């Protein structure tokens, strides 16, 4: 099996393990983070009702800085939007990624804005 195919398979298996245990509700929605090579996105999802409560992304933004700094900006944005939606606590879905680097920067920034997880 090619190296990239094996990495993709391993990530999808990790993602499945995380999603089997993490479910968002209206009181405590799921904060899911998607990180690509270029952009960072975060969403607050109510899995029971099946809709998104808030979203923040770097797509279309003119923000500059390192990707870790952009992830931190997305973290503060999603926390502010969560406050507007009257959400104080969330369940964190790391989407199969290791909790380090950009993911950690986003989570720390969201916690500084008052989001609990």
UniProtKB/TrEMBL annotation:
Pfam families: Ribosomal_L18p
Alphabetized GO MF terms: 5S rRNA binding; structural constituent of ribosome
NCBIfam families in UniProt: L18_bact
Database matches in InterPro entries: Ribosomal_L18, Ribosomal_uL18_bac-type, Ribosomal_uL18_bac/plant/anim
Protein name listed in UniProt: Large ribosomal subunit protein uL18
Gene: rplR
One Gene Ontology biological process: translation
Function statement: This is one of the proteins that bind and probably mediate the attachment of the 5S RNA into the large ribosomal subunit, where it forms part of the central protuberance.
The organism's place on the tree of life at top rank: Bacteria
Keywords from the named record: Ribonucleoprotein, Ribosomal protein, RNA-binding, rRNA-binding
Family: Belongs to the universal ribosomal protein uL18 family.
Self-association state and partner proteins as the record states: Part of the 50S ribosomal subunit; part of the 5S rRNA/L5/L18/L25 subcomplex. Contacts the 5S and 23S rRNAs.
Gene Ontology cellular-component terms listed: cytosolic large ribosomal subunit
Gene3D superfamilies found in the cross-reference section: 3.30.420.100
């Amino acid at each position: 099996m090619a190296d990239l195919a094996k990495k993709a398979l391993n990530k999808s298996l990790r993602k499945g393990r995380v999603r089997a245990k993490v479910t968002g509700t209206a009181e405590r929605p799921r904060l899911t983070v998607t990180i690509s090579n270029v952009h960072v996105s975060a969403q607050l999802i109510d899995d029971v009702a099946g809709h998104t409560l808030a979203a923040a992304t770097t797509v279309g933004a003119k923000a500059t800085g390192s990707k870790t700094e952009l992830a931190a900006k997305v973290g503060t944005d999603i926390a502010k939007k969560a406050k507007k939606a009257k959400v104080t606590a969330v369940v964190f879905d790391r989407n199969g990624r290791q909790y380090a680097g950009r993911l950690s920067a986003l989570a720390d920034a969201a916690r500084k804005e008052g989001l609990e997880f």
